[in-house]
Amino acid sequence: MSVQLKVYNQKAEAVSEMELSDKVFGLKANEALVHQAAVAQMGNERQVLAHTKDRSEVRGGGRKPWRQKGTGRARAGSNRSPIWKGGGVTFGPTKERNFKKQLNKKMKQQALCMVLSDKADSDSLVVLDKLEMNEFKTKVFDGMLTGLERKAFKIKQVDSKATKQESKKTKKQENEKARKPKRSILIINDKKDEKVKYSGRNLAGVEMLNLDNINILDLLKYKKLILTKAGIKKLEKNYG
Fold first, then answer.
1. What residues are paired with 206 via a beta bridge?
2. Residues near 22 by Cβ (< 8 Å), separated by ≥ 6?
């Protein structure tokens, strides 16, 4: 069964419908594969920072502290021994650790398509006919997102002034109702556009990505996804 989604313009008006490919947006999720792909990406991006020096790396220790016999003390060959203060560290973390994980290309693509399918199935995907900005204007971009949240994602915006009239409710309940839902939107454009990039990059809870940089971690991190019509066609061409 094919997936049908409405196509919106930047004024949050439904202008048409689009049929999505089952090979990209109609897959059943395999949690184990998605988890494996996410762990592999996190491991490949991880930087190995923690490093302790062993006795060969610690400065000093070239001279035997005292002679082998006759002093009544235990034998010692170096003051850089791990049992000495200021000596090396035994079994500590080192920079030679490797967290990289390999995952073949088909598994990566399959996991990515499963997350995209879940977005489409849970009404967390909105398709735009195009994404363009005439000027560098964050306020205009924010207004566009607000309109899409209300009409496309069906997110209710709560007015904080309305709660002050309800005197029976406690202050805590008023604050909880007045608090707007946190924005969590990933926007993937099919082409590089500096005006779109700089207009939306300072908004809290909004991440801007180019289609070439699509990855499973960002798709999982953000609850809502906005894709352009041309971007969906490219995805279907590449992964379908």
1. 185
2. 1, 2, 3
* 3 neighbors 19 (Cβ within 8 angstroms): yes
- For the chain, give the percent of residues with pLDDT over 70: 90
Looking at residue 77, its pLDDT comes to: 92
**Could you tell me if 213 and 231 are in contact, meaning their C-beta atoms sit under 8 angstroms apart?**
no
pTM for the model stands at 0.79
Tokens, residue 217:
């971690």
Return the CATH class of domain 3-31+103-239.
Answer: alpha beta
In the sheet that holds 224-228, the strands lie side by side as 14-20, 3-8, 125-128, 224-228, 185-189, 206-210
Any idea where the domains of the chain sit in the sequence? 3-31+103-239, 47-98
CB within 8 A of 201, min separation 6: which ones?
208
Half-sphere exposure of 214 (CA within 13 A, CB side): 24
Contact 184, 222 (CB under 8 A): yes
Burial of 53 (0-12, 13-18, 19+ CB in 10 A): middle
d(CA 49, CA 94): 8
Whether the predicted pLDDT of 29 surpasses 60: yes
Cα(141)–Cα(83) distance, integer angstroms: 62
CA distance 227 to 189: 6
Residue type, 147: G
